[in-house]
Amino acid sequence: MNGQHIGGRSLARKALRAGFYWATMQTDAKEHVKKCDKCQKHGDMHLAPPIELKTLSSSWPFAWWGMELLGPFPTTSGQN
Predict the structure, then answer these.
(1) How many CA atoms lie within 13 A of 57 on its CB side?
(2) What are the boundaries of each domain within the chain?
(3) Which of 14, 18, 29, 77 has a beta carbon 3.0–4.6 Å from 8's, enabling a disulfide?
(4) Where's the Integrase zinc-binding domain (predicted)?
């Protein structure tokens, strides 16, 4: 099963469609994908963050605060 670098479940289904079957097929496929260097480099790129994450350091906890003020809201007949 060469070509696309797909997830373990998809790999197991592809092998099943090709006529292969064994009891631990799905588990083995997931383990193969975890260990495959090419699968890790090229598969599931949509799960990677779109940009590099940066840390934000603060001189003390809660140094930056944000607040949103809303209202007044109209009351209903039930005073909610």
Answers:
(1) 1
(2) 8-47
(3) 29
(4) 13-42
